[in-house]
Amino acid sequence: MATENHSVIHSDPETLGGTPVFVGTRVPVQALIDYLEGGHPLAEFLDDFPSVTHEQAIAALEEAKRLLVSGACAA
Question: The pTM is what?
Answer without folding.
Answer: 0.82
